[in-house]
Amino acid sequence: MSRVILGTNLIEDCGTVMTISGTPLFSYKVEPDEVKLSFNIPSPPANTEVRVEDNVICRGNVVVKADQNSATISHGDVKLLHLSIEGDTAIVHLDLRPLGLRIYTDSNALHIGSSQLSQNIIKQCTNGIAIG
């Protein structure tokens, strides 16, 4: 994970992009046949625990779809996490509201509760964004 765009924020050379209550939210591997995505949200703080390891659903009522350039984890009609690879950069879109967390991205920012992170560059850290 060298370069990740989350909302409009660039997170570069960090150990994890985002942690929630000390748990890394996601990680990924680019393999020849598909992107392997891991995703972990504990309950609490979420209403429902979701855990996916290398595209295998371990907990939660979610669907995982992946191909050579992207991976998506959906809950019902909502994409909780969509990751696409463009060159050496992963572009991530989040919407954790169906799980009871006010954390989502849009074209302007990463929204966390009533706060917004927009157009930040976070480099060379252990955790890019730590929540809770």
Trace the largest sheet across and list its strands. 9-10-11-12-1-2-16
Distance between the termini: 22 Å
Please count the beta strands (DSSP E, at least 2 residues each).
17
Strand content: over 45%
**Which regions have little confidence, pLDDT < 50, spanning 5+ residues?**
none
Radius of gyration: 14 Å
Quick structural gist:
The protein is mainly β. It has strands at residues 3-6, 9-12, 16-20, 23-24, 26-30, 35-41, 50-53, 56-59, 63-66, 70-75, 78-86, 89-94, 103-105, 110-112, 115-117, 121-123, 127-131.
Structural summary, described in words:
- With 132 residues, this protein is mainly beta.
- Helices cover 0% and strands 58% of the residues.
- The chain has a 7-stranded mixed beta sheet, with no helix packed on it. It has a 4-stranded antiparallel beta sheet with strand order 5-6-7-8, with no helix packed on it. A 3-stranded mixed beta sheet has the order 4-3-17, with no helix packed on it.
- Strand 7 and strand 8 (56-59) form a beta hairpin.
Which features would summarize this protein structure in a list?
four-stranded antiparallel sheet, 0% helix, 132 residues
